[in-house]
Amino acid sequence: MIYREAGQFKTSYAADQAIFPIRLDRIGIAVCLAIAYLAVPAVANDYWLLSILVPFLVFSLAAIGLNILTGYAGQLSLGTGGFMACGAFAAYKLATSFPDLHIIIVFLLSGGVAAAVGVLFGLPSLRIKGFYLAVATLAAQFFLIWMFNKFGWFNNYSPSGVISAPPMHLYGDVYLTGPQSAPVNKYLFLLTFVALMALLAKNLTRCKIGRSWMAIRDMDIAAEIIGIKPLVAKLSAFAVSSFFIGVAGAMWAFVYTGSVEALAFDINRSFQVLFMIIIGGLGSILGSFLGAGFIVLLPIFLNNVPGLIGWHIPVDMIAHLEFMIFGALIIFFLIVEPHGLARLWTLAKEKLRLWPFPY
Amino acid sequence: MFFSWPFFFEVLIGGLLAGVMYSLVALGFVLIFKASGVFNFAQGGMVLFAALTLVGLIELGVPAALAILLAMAAMVVLAYVVEKAVLRPLVNQPPIILFMATIGITFFIDGFGQTLWGSDVHTLDLGIPNTPLFFGDILVNSFDLVAAAVAGILVTVLAIFFQKTRIGRALRAVADDHQAAMSVGIPLRVIWVIVWSVAGLVALVAGIMWGSKLGVQFSLALIALKALPVLILGGFTSIPGAIIGGLMIGAGEKLAEVFIGPFLAGAIEDWFAYMLAMVVLLFRPQGLFGEKIIERV
Q1: Residue at B78 is within a domain
Q2: Burial class, B203, CB count within 10 angstroms (exposed 0-12 / middle 13-18 / buried 19+)
Q3: Which chain A residue's Cα is nearest to B273?
Q4: B39: which chain A residues are within 8 Å (Cβ-Cβ)?
Q5: Which residues from A are below 8 Å from B281, CB to CB?
Q6: How far is CA A105 from CA A78, A91, A246, A247, in A?
Q7: First vs last Cα of chain A: how many Å apart?
Q8: Which CATH number do you get for residue B15?
Q9: Residues linked to residue A260 through DSSP beta bridges, in sequence order
Q10: Where would you find the membrane-spanning parts of this chain (chain A) (predicted)?
């Protein structure tokens, strides 16, 4: 009876259309942000910040991007890794060609480059759909990775092919990349950036363009008949999605690993992000975060459990068992909750509204 | 001048024969997609699992013929388990969920096969001759000829199975219309087990051929990715499409690698097949031989 909309009167349209119309939701989000900004940096050590929270935030951003394309606009894509690589290499070229450019501008511009490439590879979606489209997006994946591997221009003719991100600072001597960067700074920067991007994504999906994506997803022919242009809707979905994914790729290379290499963005990365949005929930921004958290934490969990309960298994065996358990868990999740973790949250909210009454 | 007609034909024939090997993998996809509408990403994993099981049994000292039979049995058991544990609980879910589930299956059987048999590279030698033959000026590998013959036999057997037997007719009925097939009394679940078993057997054949050629190792699971452009080129629902798509991809890929690759920094094999398939899709969205997609609101 605590969590409810009854008794919270709206006196303006703006209040009625707010993202979180229920007061408790607003308080909840504020508490979450407070924990993320104040408690986590105080408690977490460098291992947690660098190996869990930073990749979690980067993956969340990529998952939001793919969710816009696949979850909201209904275009199945397996090219996520390619678009991430696009963002990473664009950021590298920008940062090395214009060393004075601010890191935020570099990230946004590299997202723009990825968006342009995304629109290019989104063109087939006007003709084909479903699994045919999914396979066509694999063309983007393989072509882009090949291109970044083969042409020296992209890595400034580095002989080894592995290049490290140049040190870049946010302001003063607060560095985000390079040896002088503190994990806490990386975390706080990513947290702010991802939170703002998530807000942007949430609002995009609630406005006219987001509604046109969902109409295309639900039935493209019917959407066309009521006056939605498939060309605009599909290509804008590809552009926005690739922008998010490109920024995530740039962050992966600059803030997380600190090195730019095409191999980090192979086909497995695409599947990983796809798993995140399926497990988190298609067509849900919250789900992108939940799915990213699940997929980032699961391997760490699987790695540590045998040690904790005293099993000693050879290392290569663990790797294979991890594969098995991962696959089995994916299937288990799909069977138990095909709509993802976000759906569990929705159901819990419904129950809370009625609590303590069953109906 | 590095272009000459005999060389061109040599590359072309080599490519066509390599394409046959792609077709072997693509066939398994088509079978399952036709009968159950599931885009089975696990086909590559099944190829690896079948080959690993076969090699593992042979290395345990089981005679080759018996090992093949046992591997076949293993694939049937796998099909049964997949139907029971994955497909049945997920019935009526949207296709993307089933697709994700098959990726889950891929992870599982990749891990399972390697846990069981180890991840070393095994050699599989079933006495298939691997000697270069010359027809005039053109060099052809005898192994590739055997592979082509095997693929031919496999397709013939499948065609007879589908056209002439009772189960084959039931399979075609299910492929045509699930509900109509059920209403005339065809047990859908049994059909799914059968079709996954047949796909498993096709995977075993593909595993034997690829395994003999490259050695049985984890990378076998990745050839599934090469079979995907074959599929979209030929259409998801067409068995002849899988064969002709495979031939086109194989030949196109090799010709592009040899004659265009040097101008583009090489190794364009990685993506050329996908680009070719994508261009074809722009003109024929259902692939070359797929059923025409009719949409109603």
Answers
A1: yes
A2: buried
A3: A139
A4: 131
A5: 124, 127-128, 132, 136
A6: 28, 10, 13, 11
A7: 12
A8: 1.10.3470
A9: A163
A10: 27-44, 50-69, 76-95, 101-123, 130-148, 187-204, 235-255, 275-301, 313-336
Check residue B80 and give its pLDDT: 92
Lowest mean pLDDT among A158-162, B40-44, B79-83: A158-162
Q: For chain B, state the CA radius of gyration.
A: 19
For residues A299-314, give the mean pLDDT. 74
Select from A121, A137, A142 the residue whose CB has the most chain B CBs within 10 Å, as the one to mutate to test that interface: A142
B166 in any annotated domain: yes
Between CA A149 and CA B36 the distance in angstroms is 39
**Is B267:B261 a contact under the CB 8 Å cutoff?**
yes
Helices B43-59 and B95-117 cross at an angle (nearest 10°) of: 20
**Residues A174-216 pLDDT 10s:** 777 777 778 888 899 999 999 999 999 999 999 999 999 999 9
Task: Please report residues of A whose CB lies closer than 8 A to that of B295.
Answer: 221
Q: Is residue B292 part of a domain?
A: no
Cis peptide preceding B240, ω within 30 of 0: no
Q: For residue B1, what pLDDT band results from cuts at 50, 70 and 90?
A: very low
Per residue in B196-217, pLDDT (tens digit) is 999 999 999 988 888 888 778 8
CA distance B19 to B31: 18
In a domain? residue B92: yes
Alpha helical stretches, state H, A282-340: 285-308, 315-336
CB-based contact A128 B266, cutoff 8 Å: no
Kindly state the tokens that stand for B214.
Answer: 């490259």
Judge contact between A167 and A179, C-beta under 8 A.
yes
The residue ranking higher by pLDDT, B158 or B263, is B158
A301 within 8 A of A274, measured Cβ to Cβ: no
pLDDT in tens, B84-142: 888 888 877 888 788 888 988 988 998 888 888 877 777 777 767 767 777 766 777 78
Residues in B 63-122 with any Cβ partner in A closer than 8 A: 85-86, 89-90, 93-97, 99-101, 103-112, 114-115, 119
Tell me what pLDDT residue A116 has.
Answer: 96
A323 vs B105: CB contact, 8 Å cut-off? no
Alpha helical stretches, state H, A67-207 = 80-97, 103-122, 131-150, 183-206
Please tell me the distance in Å from B20's CA to the nearest CA on chain A. Answer: 20
Q: How far apart are CA A290 and CA A204, in angstroms?
A: 20
Q: What is the CA radius of gyration of chain A?
A: 21
Which residues 252-281 of chain B have a CB within 8 Å of chain A? 264-268, 270-271, 274-275, 277-278, 281
Please give the residue range of the domain that contains residue B142. Answer: 5-283
Q: What is the pLDDT of residue A63?
A: 96
Q: Does residue A34 belong to the interface with chain B, where contact is any CB pair within 8 Å? A: no
**Per-residue pLDDT tens for B172-194?**
888 777 788 889 988 888 888 99
Please report, for residues A138, A232, A236, A237, A354, the alpha-carbon distance to residue A126 in angstroms, rounded to integers and kept in the order given: 16, 10, 12, 12, 45
